[in-house]
Amino acid sequence: MGEPVTYGINPQELMPTRKALGFELTELITPKQLEQRYLTNPNGECVQPYGFLNIASLRRGTKACI
């Protein structure tokens, strides 16, 4: 994967932190979903992402933040 991971948050801290900051969770992509969506070629071969990497999409007000 071409971009380095520059920020992370412990999954157990995500919900309390996002709530305290006023964000709404709009999507949570798990490692398996990342693999299926973006890392599997038409032949079914895939590259597995970091096993711990989830991607959370958040929204605050009407503006989406990733």
How does this structure look, described?
This protein is of the alpha+beta class and 66 residues long. The protein has one domain (11-65). It contains two helices and three strands. It has helices at residues 11-20, 31-38, and strands at 24-29, 55-60, 63-65. A three-stranded antiparallel beta sheet has the order 1-2-3. The protein is elongated and about 45 Å long.
In angstroms, what is the radius of gyration?
Answer: 14 Å
Beta-strand level of the residues, as a percent range? 15-25%
Q: What string, H for helix and E for strand, traces the elements in order? A: HEHEE
State the secondary-structure class: alpha+beta
Shape: elongated
> Helical amount among residues, as a percent range?
25-40%
The description of the largest β-sheet is:
3 strands, antiparallel
N-C termini distance: 18 Å
Supply the number of helical segments: 2
- The side-by-side strand order for the widest beta sheet comes to 1-2-3
**Average pLDDT taken over every residue:** 81
Low-confidence stretches: none
Total beta strand runs: 3
Counting structural domains, the number is: 1
Write a compact overview of the structure shown.
This protein is an alpha+beta fold. It has helices at 11-20, 31-38; strands at 24-29, 55-60, 63-65.
Question: What attributes characterize this protein structure?
Answer:
alpha+beta, three-stranded antiparallel sheet, 66 residues, 23% strand, 2 helices
Question: Topology of this protein?
Answer:
Elements: H1 11-20, E1 24-29, H2 31-38, E2 55-60, E3 63-65
Antiparallel strand pairs: 1-2, 2-3
